[in-house]
Amino acid sequence: MQNRQLSKIRLVTRHLLKLVSLICLLFFLLLVVLQIIPSRNFTIPPTNPNLITEPKIQIEPQPILFEDVTLTSGINHSHIQHSGTINDIRDGLNAGACIADFDGDGWVDLLFAAGGGQTRYYGRQSWWNNHYPAIMYHNQSGFFKRLPNATIDVSSSITACAANDLDNDGLTDVLLASTEGIVLFRNAGNLKFERQENFSQLVKPAWVSHITVSGINQDGLPDIHLSRFIRYQKNIKSLELATGFSEQHQHQFDPQSFDGMDNVLLLNQGKLNFIDKTQEYGLASRQERTVSATALDIDGDGKVELLELNSSDQSVRSYSINDNKLHLIERNSWPLTINNTHYVDSGQQLGDANPLLFFSRGAGLANIALIANADIKTGQDIIWPTQLMQHNNIFLNYWGSAFADFNNDSRVDLVMATGGLMADSFSQQMTQASPNVCATQIPTNTASPVFTTHSCNSAIASSRSVVRLDYNNDGKMDLLFVNNNDFPQLMVNRSSDAGNWISLDIPSDSKWYGAQLSIGGNGIMHIMPPANRTALFGNHDPRQHFGLASRQNTTVALSKAKNTLQQELSVNHFYRLEGDTWAIKDVFPSPLNRIELAQGDIASQVRMLMGQSITEIQYEVLDKILQQASSEQITELANLISQYPYNPHLALYLHWLSATSPILQTAAADAILQLESEISVRYLLPHLASDDNVLYCLVADVFAQWFEQEEAVTRAKYLAIPHLMRRLASQSSEIVSCTAKALGYAEHQNSTSAILAIIEDAPANAKADLINALGKIRQKEAISYLHQQVQTSKNIAVIQQSIIALVRLNDLHLDRLVKTSAVLSQQSTYVYVALYALSNAIDNVVIDSEKRKEWLQSWPVQPNVSQLESDYLREFYMDTSDNQEIPFETLNILTRSESPRLATLILKQRLMRVLDRSNLLSISAQNLNEASLKILEKKLLTLPASLNLENVNVLQLSNLVVFLPLFSAEQQSQILRQAANSQTLHFTPQQSNTFLSVLLRYGNKLTLQSRGKINNLGWLEWLIFAQSDDTSLGQLGKLIDQAFANRKSFFLLNWLQINTFEWQFITPKRVSAALLFHSNLDDEFKLSWAIKYFAMDNYSKTWLLTKINDGDEASLNACLSANGFDWLVSKVDMASLLSNVSYSLGTKNRLRSFVQMADHNLTKVGS
After folding, report:
1. Could you read off the pLDDT of 1057-1091 as tens digits, one per residue?
2. How would you class 617 by CB atoms within 10 Å of its CB: exposed for 0-12, middle for 13-18, buried for 19 or more?
3. 318 and 310 Cβ atoms separated by less than 8 Å
4. Can you give the C-alpha Rg of the chain in angstroms?
């Protein structure tokens, strides 16, 4: 037994030892891998023996940050390329931009390849399409002004551009690629461009996707490489479709469905003369599907190679440039085969001689990162160690990219543009959007660079190119995302300013153009190949920007052939090479004109800016003024923007959606709604994720109304549908209801499934709104659920909306469903009440009134309202406009209810059932709202006069006084006698307003005795005498004096509530004369009166004009606030008012703002 146990122990021990040995071996191998792989792949020996490597310090990285300033930049166009919907690869591939200082003023301008617009199915431009394919903007101190369309006059569908000085005259020329070839424009100066007709004839018409300008034969003149994409053919048939089968993928978006083409090489002969050297340089023998091409130094030898980036399964084609010729680099010279690529960019930073190459690829394929040095043949892809590729973003379709030191910390960062090629599922005129990726390089001790990535901006689009530029000359590189079938996005750099910088510009006509550039300082050297200006489908800012961290100066050296130029430069300057000297060319932003206004006068500031776009600086000023504005000024601003929405101010309205003032939020949403701007959708979508119910519902309602109007915001509004669907899961009934309204008007078929999936778990108060949406969407799959709700729901609104939805769906079984419900004991009452109260239901008009009556007659016994089982059912029953058949006795039974709402409804019905005045006395013993007071008035006018009014309580008395003229002389005396003896009589605001209205309309029915008693009571309803010509102004004045002596001026304020209808019952001139020229009334009340009635009364006009001409600021400002500017212009000389020394600068500026707005002929909404 012991031997057997010892054997088992030995066996277990042996296995344990083997297991421990295996673990140790695996651990050892892991250590080896961690040591070997970085060494083999990433450790690069310095090519310069004098290179000194700085020690790296581990610090907390600061991510590069950007802010979208498109709306305040002046950029206002959209790329458009489709024939009604995105049909094929031609519609979804391109969108580019070129950056250059076209007029030499020190500010980089913009040129966009904006597509061919919306064309007819077979390519001919629609007669109504005013889209221009090439759009140029002039940079005016950081604000872009769009130049006339004729500046670059082309008619083809522009796919790409290139900006370069092709004739070395110091001015940047323009190359445009299209689906039909290429066009050259010579820069003639002063932003004038001349088309070179002979140039276009060099190349046969074909789709050119990209233009690369580089010194191919190294003769000092820039040459041109044309990437020709595919041999495009509309409506090409696949094998499956041609043989009658259906295919699983959309072949029209697959480049492999089309034949490839040979690329073209044009060599510059000077003076804008070029010759085609495609055949001679060996490009004609290869027909590929090239998306783009780039000239880069990929092996660190200081010489440029040409890389052609091919789509589909074709790999990158690379050429070396030796002996003024292109030499194909064999594929075995690359460490790996890279297929399906779109673009390659290189990034290099101080202290590192070897650039990092980044290859962007299609969705589902990992991008490629390589170190460009002499060992590139044996190097390996380092995309994963750099963390530029993450498993959660491999699904993105990557296009253009831009390396730059965006935070000036001397480490190069990377930005990647992404976007889908095919049409968006909800908006068929736009391609699929996805987030662009910003990668910040972080300090690390590893041999390879490491980046941390995040989304560049919250408003996503389908981007193609990303261009680096310093558009505002602040020394930090900004971004321009160029989006396919969408508006571009200009992103200002808001990154933490980590250090100093330097910007260098080497003109193309300089003898140093194309030289090797070394940046040094404190013994640090940086070897640069010639500048890479090429961006995907365009080009970057031609100035070379370097972040220098804490360095205070740096040495710049140029090396070309055997010549060297070296100079020490100060940091934080723009330099341009002039001859052999670096000259400072600083052109920093100058303060824009700011309007000098009184503090907090936000509405005047906005008026002054009518007729022009809001710049970024003015935007910031307005925001600060708004923070200090009073509630009255905010109200004035809200009225202004809702009545005069102005498209160039869209950025303000979008910003004010998040204002703390509800009235300003609502006005901003209203302005956005009215403008119907396609670009606003991009900035509204993020708000659909808000947990702020007010903000969310404002934005959802904007989309709802756009959905309802088929012709509004036709391209982009349907992008909101998936955002809205996600909010169906909210637990907020308000958010779900707002969502349901929007989805209902959108009428998208996918919404039905989304609603049905959550409706049983949705907040109860939102269920009826969800069912209403199901009806508007009109998908048959909802019918079964709607039947169930009619048969089982105990919610009246749900039953009503289910019936309405079934009518919309033309349900053939609805009639039988309703009539069957009439005999179901458990559900009969609920369906009956739902039909009975249908007139108060939303969208009840879809049900024919006769059909409703037919359904109600299906009930064998109509339910008695007093026998309904709950106040909930009784409220629905009572709140119906046509239920006057309810007996008065039944109402008396229902008064036992404790429901406040039901009590109000019963009171209304009791008033409607009054048959004589005796019943009125008991009803008037309650608090009556304005609606009940109106019903009471009608009854007093029609019922017999007999009524004993002695010994009424205070509440009854106050209601009776309101209608005093409608009683007999004896009854008037009874009421006034009791009012005089009452110590607790008081009037609600509703009673006071009704009293005044009754007196104005029926005051002539008052006896003289009653009039005197009214005056003695000090109620200040003295103006009833204005209806009589026997009352002099002197008598009216005494009554005013007495009123103020009795401190009853509260009633005087009620006169400011007189409406236009009631005004006809008094003599306006006598009333205004009595008030405005009485010495005991203060000017505050007189001004209120004059402002209220100056449009109807000459005395008020005269008084107001006198005060304004005398320099009374309160009167002028009140007149302007009351929309009196147009009247004022017809009565007063504006120049005299503006020169009146009695007015403050703030008031003058406010008046000037009205003049400014009038000069631009802005039309008030609804006029």
Report:
1. 555 555 555 555 666 777 787 777 778 878 888 88
2. middle
3. no
4. 40
